[in-house]
Amino acid sequence: MFDCAIIGSGPAGLAATVFAIRKGIDVRLVTGKLGGKTSLSVNFPDMDDYVVLKAKEQVQVYRAQVEYLSHILREGYLERIEDRGNSFLLTLRNGDQLESRYLIATTGTRASALDIPGESQFFGKALGSSAISYSHMLRDRNVCIVGNSDRAIDAAVECSSQAARVCLVLEPHASYSHTALALANEREEITTLNGYSLVSIDGDEWARSLTIRRGDATTGSNREKTLEAEAFFIEREPRPNSDLLAELVRRDDRGAIIVDTQGRSSHPRIFAAGDVASTGMEQILIALGDGTRAALSVYRELTRRDPN
């Protein structure tokens, strides 16, 4: 039986693993792909290198340390977690099992695919899903943000402080705060188009334009618009990858694992860090810190409160 199993190997999982190793914790990292969503970074045309915050390079440092200690890796996707009272039995899809006294969930989130032409082709090429992470790279650029909640509105407001123009497209049946929308409408840099669906994404080596459509229930007609910009973001609420722990911990309305300031969930032996946790902020540097803090919490449990 191991001291701690870390599930997921994005920035939070890698940081938790490295800290656990340094503290002598008998740890195993259960992972399908090292690095998580950090491989899905977004680039923009004509971007000067100096404006890029290279948090991703920090992740590579942690990744290199974990890869070097390959014996702590358990490659494969998790199928089931069984609470055995003083331990957890983890079963992978390939049938492998491991038993651990503590768990740290760092499984992140997943985006809702739109399944429209150009989505997969241009993702990462001036098309992304977290505008707030890239707002510092958008100075004096034209930006288009599409979404169905306050997330999209908040992103538009954030980007408007840097970008030349922001076009905010709210999808049909969007659920948002009218107060948040009123704030966006006060910004001269933001133009809001309400009730439009995204039809396609077009471009060359980069995403260059979006086609959106709005239906008229009265006439049965559809109106299409083509929006050109230098940066595009699909801002739908991501879904936390927490289903395997649904019966073991409390989650919020989004499905994020509710944690305290130390990363502890409602289960005394389960911790969570990064975007899967209620404190997640979709920022690499924050996830690295969250993962380190969760591992420190487990270390304290093992050395101060759980001597067996």
Overview of the structural elements:
- The protein has 308 residues and is an alpha/beta fold.
- It has two domains: 2-110 and 238-305, FAD/NAD(P)-binding domain (3-Layer(bba) Sandwich), CATH 3.50.50; 119-235, FAD/NAD(P)-binding domain.
- The chain is 25% helix and 31% strand.
- The chain has helices spanning 11-22, 55-68, 119-122, 131-134, 150-160, 178-186, 284-305; strands spanning 2-7, 27-31, 73-75, 78-83, 88-92, 97-105, 109-110, 127-128, 142-149, 165-175, 190-194, 197-203, 207-215, 222-228, 231-235, 239-240, 270-272.
- The strands form four sheets. Strands 1, 2, 3, 4, 5, 6 and 17 form a seven-stranded mixed sheet that branches. A five-stranded parallel sheet has the order 8-15-9-10-11, with helices on one face.
- Helix 1 crosses helix 2 and helix 1 (11-22) runs parallel beside helix 7 (284-305).
- The longest helix has 22 residues, at 284-305.
- The radius of gyration is 21 Å and the shape is elongated.
Any key phrases for this structure?
five-stranded parallel beta sheet, 308 residues, FAD/NAD(P)-binding domain, 25% helix, alpha/beta, seven-stranded mixed beta sheet
